[in-house]
Write a structure and sequence with these properties.
By secondary structure, this protein is α/β, with parallel strands linked by helices. It has five helices and five strands; from the N terminus they run E-H-E-H-E-H-E-H-E-H.
């Protein structure tokens, strides 16, 4: 059975400060061009079946999209493929922006 945890923006913000995680933006290229959450990598939902293996090694994987629907699909798929500690950001970037959190350019997203 695939399971994942739904989290709010405040929980994601706390996790970003305290837990090792892989933050995955599953939006399309045109959406990501407007900005991503700092630290995120971009894997469009359509490509996830080809790239999920790189996620299975992460301790915590958090998915987000525009509103939370596509990322819920990504979270369910990834947890069914063996990813542990999988999360979905409720409300996606809409909720992130509404909470006043910033975005960065895609090429600045994952500079770890």
């Amino acid at each position: 059975m695939s399971t994942y945890i739904e989290i709010e923006t405040s929980e994601l913000s706390d996790m970003m400060a305290t837990k090792p995680m892989l933050l995955v933006d599953v939006r399309n290229d045109d959406e990501v061009a407007r900005g991503i959450i700092s630290g995120a990598i971009h894997i469009p939902l359509a490509l996830l079946p080809l790239k999920y293996d790189q996620l299975t090694k992460a301790e915590n994987v958090v998915f987000y999209c525009h509103s939370g629907a596509r990322s819920a699909h990504a979270a369910a798929f990834s947890s069914s493929k063996g990813c542990k500690n999988v999360y979905n950001l409720i409300g996606g970037v809409l909720a992130w922006a509404k909470a006043g959190h910033p975005f960065v350019a895609k090429d600045e997203g994952n500079k770890k």
